[in-house]
Write a structure and sequence with these properties.
Layout (H helix, E strand, L loop, with lengths): L4 H9 L9 H13 L18 E2 L1 E3 L33 H6 L4 E2 L4 E2 L4 E11 L1 H12 L3 E2 L1 E3 L2 E2 L1 E7 L5 E7 L1 E2 L1 E6 L5 E9 L2 E9 L8 E10 L17 E2 L23 E2 L7 E13 L9 H5 L4 H38 L27 H26 L10 H12 L1 H14 L5 H29 L8 H28 L25 H8 L1 H19 L7 H28 L6 H9 L1 H16 L5 H39 L5
Parallel strand pairs: 14-18
Antiparallel strand pairs: 1-4, 2-3, 2-7, 5-16, 5-18, 6-11, 7-8, 9-10, 12-13, 13-17, 14-15
Helix pairs in contact: 6-13, 6-14, 7-8, 7-9, 7-10, 7-14, 7-17, 8-11, 9-10, 9-11, 10-11, 10-17, 12-15, 13-14, 13-16, 14-15, 14-17, 15-17, 16-17
């Protein structure tokens, strides 16, 4: 089914484009776009079903966007006859960290066998169990069933401008529904809570490989609430997974009389102490579909796809980059060239005239900053995170992080960061030696410990809070121990190895000598003050990426699929260029004002973009998320702090390195007596 990848490419990566400037960048980008089928890992084969073959239905955790706390499916007393609750599917590291727990279910499907009104089980719930169901319904918890590795979804249809309809999926289905209005549009005195106890499954399949070989290409559900009634004395143990007929007959639905929305719904009264009888039932409908197996995820991804908005965002960001590139080019070509010509003139200095501008601070511009060791640690950590991010997005574009492989993205992120430790250690050691530091082992250990240590401490505290809520999102201590082994057993040694090789190399030679006595910095204009440049420096990079930040936040906190990694790679490149160019421009203005304390300021100038990202994430939570519990807000703030800290290190390191290269370049081109 490789021929069906073309549709996948359009959804994943959009359409390639070309510009005159940056032709090499465009060629690489187009190559990555065309490679970004990004659905199935090589070697993963589809499952062919013969007519009548049994099909296993599994269930993941219950999830809610209001609480961000997943729970095991059987934390509620759902039907589980014939299911061994002690057996779970093997999970990868990413799935465990996401809180996934996969169990079998008692649903009985057979390929091609349509069945109407099958009885799953009968349960009687006491007042406490009814309150548990009601709480989950009020907090918008959804059930996530799996069939042939496809998540169940509710089909939605939207009308386009050309009056055609587009089919989209909303993953999972709600446990129930809260009705706050009556049929006339008025408010009810007390909201009515209804339980969805009847499910109508529609399984889409294709038979391109023979009439007896069918492949699942869609798994849809329509949840309904119905108060089942019956007249006969029913042996419910014998009626499990039996159609409603004969001794198992229900009055409310039969094999010829399906459930409709007009049936009386099943309400939960939390104020009543009477037991509630619930009969769980379901329908199974098989429909042929023209969808090919290789493109069966397209409908899921359409739910979050808005290519036009992405292209407008990228165009806006690209215009910012062009604007900054023009400013940098003007500085490099005109201003600095004019400075060079002025400095090289023999008659520059007349009687009583002194040098002015950035050349005047040549004897102090490479003076080691205060807390130089910490600066090298932050730069090294930022380089490690930046390299990890680039590799992660590139692997995603090349198709190694499929949505079918749940948890693959988080698992890959952890492993890539761990194995990129050598880059961080090498970079930190190179700058640490340039600053004439001698305790390189201590510096390397801080590089290996700073960001992972802060993240792990926050994660451990959050894990204790989640564990107190009895959520499946609480990571087992065995997994925490495995994370510690990855950190201390792989990442730390790699950072030390990188630092060893970085410190052994000859130190970076500065193009000009540093004076023994530091020069006094004159009073600075307000527009080049530290706080002004830091505040201004983060605005343009944030403006270039904030639209993509919205989609990334939605995919994380609204449980949507994000697979536009082609767009993300473009935006990432634009972010990196913007950070470098903004920092270079502001650093040049600072040197022209005879202020040579550029080391830390260059890091904070581009790193301030993370402050705007964090503020935007708070605004996003306020406008888009409905936190039902205080713990959910606490989780959100803590996780976004970790993301913001990583963003600060990445952008800060890029701005620092760009300024370092720029300053070395201009001071290498002038003659100093």
């Amino acid at each position: 089914d490789l021929g069906g990848w073309s549709r996948s490419l359009r959804i994943m990566s959009g359409r390639s484009f070309s510009i005159r400037e940056g032709m090499l960048f465009c060629v690489v980008t187009v190559f990555l776009f065309n490679a970004a089928a990004a659905f199935y890992l090589p070697g993963v084969a589809p499952t062919d079903y013969d007519i009548g073959d049994a099909m296993k239905v599994k269930v993941e955790a219950l999830t809610s966007v209001k609480t961000q706390l997943p729970y095991e499916y059987y934390v509620l007393p759902f039907c589980h006859k014939g299911v061994n609750l002690k057996v779970q599917d093997a999970l990868n590291l990413g799935e465990v960290l996401r809180g996934s727990r996969i169990y079998e279910t008692p649903y009985n499907f057979k390929m091609g066998n349509d069945q109407t009104c099958k009885i799953l089980c009968r349960s009687v719930y006491d007042a406490q169990e009814q309150k548990a169901f009601a709480l989950m319904i009020e907090e918008d918890y959804r059930v996530n069933l799996l069939l042939d590795n496809l998540p169940v979804a509710m089909a939605l249809f939207s009308q386009n401008e050309d009056k055609t309809t587009t089919k989209m999926y909303e993953v999972g289905y709600p446990i129930g529904h809260v009705q706050e209005e009556d049929g006339k549009g008025g408010k009810l005195k007390s909201p009515q809570i209804y339980l969805f106890n009847h499910l109508r499954f529609t399984i889409l399949y294709n038979d391109y490989h023979g009439s007896s070989k069918r492949r699942v290409v869609g798994f849809e559900v329509e949840p309904l609430s119905i108060k089942h009634t019956y007249d006969n004395l029913v042996d419910w143990d014998e009626c499990v997974n039996q159609v409603s007929e004969h001794r198992c007959k229900l009055n409310t639905c039969t094999s010829t009389q399906p459930v409709t929305v007009n049936n009386e719904p099943l309400a939960i009264n939390t104020e009543s102490k009477k037991p509630l009888e619930v009969i769980w039932s379901y329908d199974v409908i098989f429909k042929p579909s023209p969808i090919r197996w290789s493109t069966r995820w397209d409908t899921y991804l359409n739910a979050a796809d808005d290519a036009q908005v992405h292209w407008f965002s990228i165009l806006n960001s690209f215009m910012i980059v062009l604007f900054l590139s023009g400013i940098v080019a003007m500085i490099m070509i005109n201003t600095i060239k004019r400075d060079f010509q002025r400095y090289e003139r023999n008659d520059l200095l007349e009687d009583g005239q002194e040098e002015t501008g950035w050349k005047l601070v040549h004897g102090d511009v490479f003076r080691a900053p205060v807390m130089a060791g910490w600066l090298s640690v932050l730069v090294g950590t930022g380089v490690q995170l930046a390299v990890s991010t680039v590799f992660l997005v590139m692997f995603a574009c090349l198709g190694f992080l499929s949505p079918a492989n749940r948890g693959a993205l988080m698992q890959a992120m952890l492993f890539i960061f761990v194995f990129m430790g050598m880059f961080g250690g090498y970079t930190a050691a190179r700058f640490f030696r340039m600053f004439k530091g001698n305790r390189w082992r201590s510096n390397a250990l801080w590089t290996a410990m700073l960001f992972p240590g802060i993240s792990f401490c926050i994660f451990f505290i959050l894990n204790l809070a989640i564990w107190g809520q009895k959520s499946s999102g609480a990571v087992p201590f065995g997994t925490l121990f495995a994370l510690l082994l990855m950190w201390l057993g792989i990442s730390v040694p790699l950072v030390l190895i990188g630092a060893f090789f970085g410190y052994r190399k000859q130190p970076i030679e500065n193009p000009v000598r540093t004076n023994q006595i530091p020069r006094q910095v004159p009073e600075q204009p307000f527009y080049v003050s530290t706080w002004c440049t830091i505040i201004v420096g983060g605005i343009l990079p944030f403006g270039a990426v904030f639209v993509e930040v919205f989609y990334v936040l939605s995919s994380i906190w609204l449980h949507q699929f994000y697979y536009l990694f082609g767009f993300l790679l473009l935006v990432l490149g634009i972010l990196f260029l913007t950070c470098c160019e903004v920092t270079v421009v502001l650093c040049y203005l600072q040197l022209c004002c005879e202020d040579y304390h550029w080391w830390w300021r260059s890091f904070f100038t581009s790193g301030s973009c993370s402050f705007y990202v964090f503020l935007y994430s708070i605004y996003y939570a306020y406008s888009k998320l409905q936190m039902a519990r205080a713990l959910a807000a606490f989780l959100y703030v803590c996780y976004m702090f970790i993301v913001g800290f990583a963003f600060f290190l990445i952008t800060g390191a890029l701005g620092f390195l760009a300024s370092f290269v720029f300053i070395r370049t201009i001071y290498s081109a002038i003659k100093i007596d």
